[in-house]
Amino acid sequence: MGLKKRGKSNVAVAYLGDGATSQGDFYEGMNFAGVFKAPAIFICQNKRFAISVPVEQQTAAKILAQKAIAAGISAIRVDGMDPTCCLSGSKRGKNGGTEWRTNIN
Length: 105
Prior knowledge:
- By secondary structure, this protein is of the alpha+beta class.
- It has one domain.
- The protein is about 30% helix and about 15% strand.
- The longest helix is centred in the N-terminal third of the chain and has 12 residues, at about 25-35.
- Residues about 100-105 have low confidence and may be disordered.
């Protein structure tokens, strides 16, 4: 919020694991960012195993990027092993991309 109020073009970036997406403070942060249009990017690393269980047992979401929809935040899913995709996805996030995609190639 401070960046936005100061008129800065910077964005806040949060890195988290897949297990964090099932925590209340994750949803609170995303909802805050969505409601106030805060300049924020949430990067979730899906390691496929969270909170001592496989990701399929800790969330009903088909893909973790879908969780952004409830907060009114654009979401994309990229191949985390492809640095070009990661850079492209980060640039889209910084520029406030508004389209939903399941993959960027």
